[in-house]
Every structure is written in C-alpha cells, then in structure tokens.
Amino acid sequence: MPLLEENALPQEHPPTVPVVIIGNGPSGICLSYLLSGYKPYLDSSTVHPNPILYRKLQETKHLPITEQDLEFLSEGLEGRSRNPVALLFDTLLHPNADFGYEFPPVLQWRRDKQQHIPHLVLGKGTPGGAWHAMEGSMLTISLGIWMELPGVNYRDLTNGKCRDVINDRATPEEISSYYLNYVKLKGLQKNFVNNTYVTSVQKLCRGHEGQSLEAGQTDKGDVEMGNGGNEGFEGNGVECVNNGGGGGLWEVRGYQQVQNDTHVPFSLFAENVVLATGASDSPIRLGIEGENLPFVFHSISDLGLAISRRKLDMNSDPVLVVGAGLSAADAVLCAFNSNVRVLHVFRKSVDDPDLIFKQLPKTLYPEYHKVFNMMCSQTYISMAPSSTPNRPQDVSIASSVCAKMCPKPQLAAGNMIGNATVSLFPDYTSFPEHCIVSLQSDMKCLLQGNNSLKAFKISMVLVLIGTNPNLFFLKGQGQYLGQDPTKPISCKQNPIDIHPYTFECTKEPGLFAMGPLVGDNFVRFLKGGALAIAACLLKRLKKKGKLINHGGNNFI
C-alpha cells in the first residue's frame, strides 16, 4: 500500500469525530448500523429456546439489549467463539443454530434517531471489504443466512435463492452484493468514505509548549511502548489530550483515492477508533529460498487468472499448492475443474484431528471432503533411503528423482507412475508431512519429507497457509496490543487483547477491535463485537451529549 507522501500536510484544524471505524467489511457495516440509532429489543412474539436466557430477557424486555448488562446475559452461554458477547448476539439472531435449527431471531429493531453517534467508516473499496476480492463462484463455509447482518434477511436480497434443502451456502459474489445493498437499504451511505487508505493512527499528547507528541513519546524523545503510552509521562511535562471517555484523542491520517488515481490526503481527530480491518491483508509466507520468484503467488485469484488467460492447461507442468486449509482446498478444486495437474504439499498428517475437514459435515461440504479423500488416498510414497534412514537424502539423490519426475508424468488410474499412487483422480498427488526446502528459478521445487528430498518441475506455486492482519499504521504494527505483546498480532495465535464485554483494547483506552483481530473469523460471530462496542460507546457518549449529529458526516 502506498504511504502518505511526506509533503502532504494535515489540515490546520482537523475535524474531530466521535468514532472512526477503520474497515468497511461486515464488521464495520454492522457497527455503523448500531451506531446509527438502530436498537435491538426482545420481540414479544417470540420465545428463545434457552429458558434461562429467555427469563433474563423477559425481566428487562422494556430496555434495548445495548442498555442491558451484557455480562449477565452472556453468562453460561457456550459455542464456537471465545468472546461471550459474540455468543450472546449469535444466539439472539440465530437461536440453536449449532443444532441445525433455523429459528427466527428473537429481536426486533427500532430506530431512535436521538441515539445516533456520529461516525465515519473508512474502507479501501466499496462496503463489503474483502468479499469483493474473493473468487465469485466458490461457496462460503457458512450458510447464507449466517452471513446476514441485523435487520435485513439475506434471502430477501438474493431472491430467496436456496440451492437445496440441506445446503444453503452462498457465493462471495452474492454476499458482497448483499453487503453493498444493505448499506443502501439502511441509509448508512453518509457514514462511509470509500477508497480510503489509512496510513497513520496516533494518540495525541501535549507537551509544556503545547506541541503535539505521539502517544508513547515524551518531549525528550523517549518511547514507552509496553503500556500503550499512557504511563511514564508525569514529570516529563506530557499529558494525553483527554476526550472525556477515559482515553486520549486520536489523529487518523491517510488519503482518499479519487478519479485518475489522484491521492487526496486527509487528517482527522477521533475520540474513539475501532479496528475492523479483518485478517486478509498480509498472507503468511514460508520464508524460504525462492519465495519471491515471479511464479510464486499467495492468492487463489492468481490461479484463476492464469487459467482464464490460458497460461495453464492439462499439458502444463503441475501447480504446487501449499497448505492444508480451505483456501488450499479451493485452489485444488479450481485446478481440478480446469484439468490442471496438482502437487499438494502440507505439513500435517492426514490423521491429524485438527484438520478443518474433520470438522465439516459431509452433507454440507461435499467438495471439501472430496479434496480430503484425495489428500488421504493419493499420497506420494517416498523411496526408502538405501543406508542411513534418519538422514535426509542428499541433493545428488534428489537430482536423480528430479530426472525422473521433471518430465511431465502421465498418471493413470490404478498405475504407479514415478512411485506415486493414483486412483480416480490421476492429476493430483498429495505430500502429507512435507515442506518446501527451496524454489529455483528454473521452475523446480525441492520438497522434504521424513527421510528424503524430492525435486519436481512445476508451472506455478500457490502458498495458501493463512493470512495475518497488517496494522502498519499503528505504532510497532500494534504488536503491544496483543495478548502476548512480544509476538506479532495473529488472529489465531495472538489476537488483540480486549475487554470481553466492551471490546476496548486493554492497553489503549479509546481504541477498540473486532472481528478476526480478536479471534472472531466468522461473520456469524463478529456481529457480537459490534453489539459490545455500540453499547459501550452509547453509554460513554450519552454522558457527553454527543449522540445526535444534525449536520451529517462531512468530516473529509
């Protein structure tokens, strides 16, 4: 991403916004909805199947959920999110969904324009975020109705599409269209600033002379990273600019891309900042020799592009797919459906209980179980080393394997070709418990198994082993915000540490995080973050009388 040019100075007196949301995917859209005066109440015509929760809801049915005790309501709930408010909001919107039921929501939505919190949603493209960049013909993991946002039925916007009785999954194209239309239907457009790139988010502080200092920096140039910059200032003549809500004032800088690729810089002050950037910004890399070669890619869209441009076909050398998750499976299916040969490499054993395929019902996900069956049944059988079994074969032995395998092997069902077993899908070979040692400029890859090295000639490499968020606009890339501040932020391994019932960062008052950044990778659960943040901000800003915006969001 290009950075703000050095000579692009901020406005002399930037406007101050109560809330700036960075990211316009489903997280940002849902939060904008809740900040725009839409309030969830218990629908008196419904009964929640959880009797304990229903009894709690009945006791305070005159209050919107955003004004109730979320910790009390969430108590005792279990599910597939680590965040209790995510479980609460999910069961209110989709009661007993994990048991296969499709009960109606127990919420009704009312709009109170007096409860509107002025805010801006900054996104790199149009509302919908990364869903616009996904391959449009694949099917989502979640059911279509689980992808919907509050107040608008998914099927109402997709003409009631339902693929069959047991499989109502959606395509990314349908979902991205739903999110785009959702913003229009709910009148949220004025809150969204599209094609906007944030380049810097800093907490502002004042020194003795009134100069601005970045959060965590003293007037002596020292930086306090471990505590988020809120301690260590006393005695140094520095104080954070307080917004009255417990945190400092934030400066958000960046640019908006307009016609003719012109970059228009902007600068805003925000009392609260919400990180809703998702997790797809930075693909995880292998860190091996040759990963920067031009035939190595980290996105399945590059495979689709190569096939559509006829750079790959049934006569090409195999495509090397790396990874054992659903993205890698999607790449295998894409290649398989286009008669492109595949070598599939992954570190795990096919018996590993943590493989995602073992958590998916076969009836709902037949295509992924097809890939898993191929991973199990069409494995490459390594030749045993002739002497020392515990030592990998040296390169000279690997070169002899390469001489056999680099010519395009014509695999046939039931035959043994180049010591690879094949059955019903002759153009696919899996390599469990293998890793890539190196990639060479002559389009060859070197793979290492338990006791051997193998070399193959390939046409393309797809490294699909996950993604990490890119929080480059925060100090230290936001690492100090993580549950383990010594490690980079990772959605699975090291999410941002938040208060469980407000989603405010424990190390930065006034900074919130939601969605994959806090471990909620499914749309079904990230909506809980919107509920928690909206409830917190409504209480906080109501005290300051900043809920109504008469003039619109003309901040940029």
UniProtKB/TrEMBL annotation:
GO BP annotations listed: negative regulation of cell growth
Which GO molecular function annotations are given, in alphabetical order?
growth factor activity
Q: Where are the transmembrane segments?
A: none
Q: Which domain of life is it from?
A: Eukaryota
How is this protein named in the record? Oxidative stress induced growth inhibitor family member 2
- Source organism of this protein record: Channa striata
